[in-house]
């Protein structure tokens, strides 16, 4: 049994995206299952002390995102001032991992760190087109900061990438000699979708849920619609910098009247979208660390078509549903296979995520690594 400090830049309800949801699930599941004696969250998204889902949360400060040395310096000083006394520190959501490495060394306390993003890696290395601001930062300050930040990361005892793809990126970018163990995100056992009340038709309803940026590959899904039968419809849920360009691209296709963009919608409407869909599509073109929407779609009993790159490729059990990144023809072929076999694959997916990603399976993996770093 262990006292755990979970350090994360943000914690729900602040910016409750996939990373924050995963951090909350970890903390609450550890607490609910008595997997550790005590779990305390330290976050940097305000100044307050509260209890969220039974877990004490200390929000110590607001910190900027860039340059990385600054938020890590602030976080390190705030944590030292608070004086946490854990047995193990777990760094989550990437941006403050150097501060946790430094704190681990100062307190002589073992630390583990989940790897779920690539902030210290030049984005071109992971097939992401950087903004002008990000490109300028990579060529100037990050180039100077990176050696020191990576050196602080070396104090972390064990890295926990969400997928083998994440591990490989970090092995290729400064952490080749570190210790790794892949532990995926866990599903949310409280997640549910409403019953599908729609009438049976010959329509095939495709669904994409996520941020609209170039790395998500939605443009290739739109292009694939031109190669799919007329009964296939696509709903795109989400917003982002590519929305206008994607809307314009869709308008120029023969399938324009079969493609709907909803923009951002409340979470309860997202679950409605899962219930209304027949096939979920995740057409990314970069080594995305994981993909929580994929888990949700599989929990909802949907077949999931994804591209054969990054964490999603580790998650999809049917090889026929892994398309070539950036290839509309390959996407359309996988989509047609998914649609023709959707009932069988939907049942397989529900069972697969329950067997592999349920907290009953994932939480013991975390408990084991905490115990291991304490022994070592």
From TrEMBL:
Molecular function in Gene Ontology: glycosyltransferase activity
Leader sequence residues: none
Keyword Transferase: yes
Keyword Protein biosynthesis: no
InterPro entries found in the cross-reference section: Glyco_trans_1, Glyco_trans_4-like_N, Glycosyltransferase_grp1
Annotated SUPFAM superfamilies: UDP-Glycosyltransferase/glycogen phosphorylase
Lineage of the organism: Archaea, Methanobacteriati, Methanobacteriota, Stenosarchaea group, Halobacteria
Residue ranges annotated for the Glycosyltransferase subfamily 4-like N-terminal domain, each copy included: 17-190
Domain Glycosyl transferase family: 200-343
Protein name, per record: Glycosyltransferase
Keywords carried by this UniProt record: Transferase
Pfam families linked to this entry: Glyco_transf_4, Glycos_transf_1
